[in-house]
# Entry
Amino acid sequence: MKKFGKTRPRSSFHESSKFLKIWKKNKFPKKNDFSGWEKQILKKLRDSGISIETKFRNFPLNVENEKFEYVPDFLMKGFEYKGREVLVEAHEKISEEDVKKYRKFRSVFGSTYYLIMIVTDGELRMWNEYDQGVQGFFNEIWAVGDIEFLTEHLRKMKKDYEEKINSLPQNALCPKCGKKAAGYKEIVKLFGYRGKIVQSFCRKCRSK
Ligand SMILES: [Zn+2]
# Structure
């Protein structure tokens, strides 16, 4: 007879009521709540020189009248891709429930986050089949066996991002109100770039 382990496959989704209760007791987010499989992936990503924050925040999601909190596994630090922050989610076992939740996450937060999934070599095909249809639930998918290529890909994203940032002016001063900004992120937020130059007036003055 086949025996099943007692532990359910770890999911990054949590029922809101339970999640918030536990969080109130300061027990969550647990940064080390990863399976051995996921820990190996995290180590490989970090060993390649990419800086990673784990379980950095929760995203409330409403799926079929049930409330969930999504706590992404890994946030890539120090770079963005296509104007979005890059999330990497290691998913050892597929479930249709989780697919629904990822879809929901993409539909709500997809313009802010670029989602990369890592799955087992054996499940890659199944994930790609789930991805057909109305709305994809990830931006990229990689089999764990190709993780060396993935880390290379992420490093390239980081390099391209840094090159782009370094080619842009890093200081801004609004001639109208005197507002200052330093660094790419602050300039995007307060001024915005037009091609390779900073907008001359800050966003606030432009909107007046
Ligand atoms: Zn101004």
The first helix runs from residue 16 to 24. The chain has two domains: 13-165, 169-207.
